[in-house]
Fold Phosphatidylglycerol--prolipoprotein diacylglyceryl transferase.
Amino acid sequence: MLIHPEFDPIALQVGPLAIHWYGLMYLIGFGLVWLLGNYRIRTTAAPFSKARFEDLIFYCVAGVVLGGRLGYTLFYQPSYYLHHPLEILYVWQGGMAFHGGLIGVLLAIAIFARRQQLHFLQVSDFLAPLIPLGLAAGRLGNFINGELWGRASSVPWAMIFPQAQDGGIARHPSQLYQMALEGIVLFVVLWWFSSRPRPMGRVSALFLIGYGAFRFMVEFTREPDSFLGLLAGGLSMGQLLSIPMILAGLALWWWSGRRHLA
């Protein structure tokens, strides 16, 4: 049995300026996207230049932060934030939703593609393989913070999270499962798949299917939010939000194949 080391949430402090691990992981995540994107631009026939890619990164940062925060307030605690609307702005208190961030990024891609006169899927196919390592960095931030812990478990690598209300119970380190599957494994699959020419939309479809399936599986080991619990069919909110993501990916995969044959 392992015990979570309870890292100091502050990674670096210079005078009154404190840099938290979670914020640092976001910076690392976007940095990885930037590095991988620039590599792809140098080595493949990218649909835009390095300068335009940096514009896209700016749009996506705004989409992740705004979409992730609004998604959390709407999907997870709408009643609370309806009565405390100003706290929606308190991003330093935590509370970001991946599925909301995804919607924000999709809107950012749509705006960017329209302004650059590109097809939406040209942009999303380029961006999709770059995202998983950024997600891995975010899940590592969750683990360092000792948040979003897993369900009770007796597996040999189960971990006690003292931050949990019942801190003496050994649990799945589900943050690390998500980092491995939604981050590293999904990155390897998408990077390999996108290294050869594919019908437009196929890379984006594989991202939706892959992330949705991995998230759905890992949620069986993750403790549901205390204010929500399990919902319809004994599924968590994360699973319910992942189902339409998987279905959208399957539909896009089918559409891409039909379009390619036509």
Q: What stands out?
A: The two ends are 57 Å apart (CA to CA).
